[in-house]
Design brief:
By secondary structure, this protein is an alpha+beta fold. It contains three helices and eleven strands.
């Protein structure tokens, strides 16, 4: 009988469950692990977002530069104020002295490979918040029968805001001395992280001789 009583006592002792102190210690240890995990996850998440932002900046730069290069590579003569055909690419609106883009111009006027007069520049600001975006404006086309009938309205082309998101661009053009080459400089900046990426590309204008690419200085 005594042996059976001891067995029952041991069974009751083993099945008593966790005490309050053991429960508190368990929660404390779990809290320490959760805090440590949170401290690791937050920087990792921030780094992931930063890398994604950097990738978007580089992707935008590649898309925009490719567009500009395609336009200028096949650029031809352009029309100015209804005048006769002027065989030139005109770079105008220079950046001011002291600017990071000093020596570059904000605009390039030309005709595209389809013969449409156009101007490449970057938007400043408008009601849609389209600041710092690539813009190509194609002139309206009028009939040449003397009636000035508008065949096609002016086209203001740009990539949608979905491409840029929080990115803005700076764009500059400069002629390479004695060459039919335009140096294109592009900076894409993420306005939240302030990360920016700058690249330069030499664009050979295959339809232009060197003397036909002109730079228009600022008015005095």
């Amino acid at each position: 009988m005594g042996r059976e009583v001891r067995s029952d006592t041991k069974m009751r002792t083993d099945s008593r469950g966790m005490t309050l102190i053991e429960l508190i210690v368990t929660f404390a240890v779990a809290a320490i692990f959760m805090t440590a995990a949170a401290m690791l996850i937050a920087p990792a998440t921030k780094m992931t977002l930063h890398i994604k932002g950097m990738n978007r900046v580089h992707n935008d730069a590649a898309i925009i530069m490719e567009t500009v290069v395609n336009e200028l590579s096949y650029a031809d003569s352009y029309l100015e104020d209804g005048a006769a055909d002027i065989p030139a690419i005109k770079l105008s609106d220079p950046y001011p002295p002291g600017d990071a883009y000093e020596g570059y111009y904000r605009q390039a006027a030309y005709s595209d490979k389809g013969g449409n007069p156009a101007v490449i520049s970057v938007t400043s600001d408008d009601d849609t918040g389209g600041k710092g975006r690539l813009q190509i404006v194609y002139d309206a086309i009028k009939s040449d029968d003397g009636t000035d009938t508008e065949i096609r309205k002016e086209i203001d082309w740009s990539y949608g805001k979905g491409l840029y998101r929080d990115n803005e661009i700076t764009l500059g053009f400069r002629k390479k001395p004695d060459k039919n080459i335009i140096i294109v400089r592009l900076t894409v900046t993420n306005m939240i992280s302030e990360y920016s990426y700058t690249q330069e590309t030499n664009v050979r204008c295959m339809n232009m001789k060197a003397e036909k690419i002109v730079e228009e200085p600022a008015e005095p």
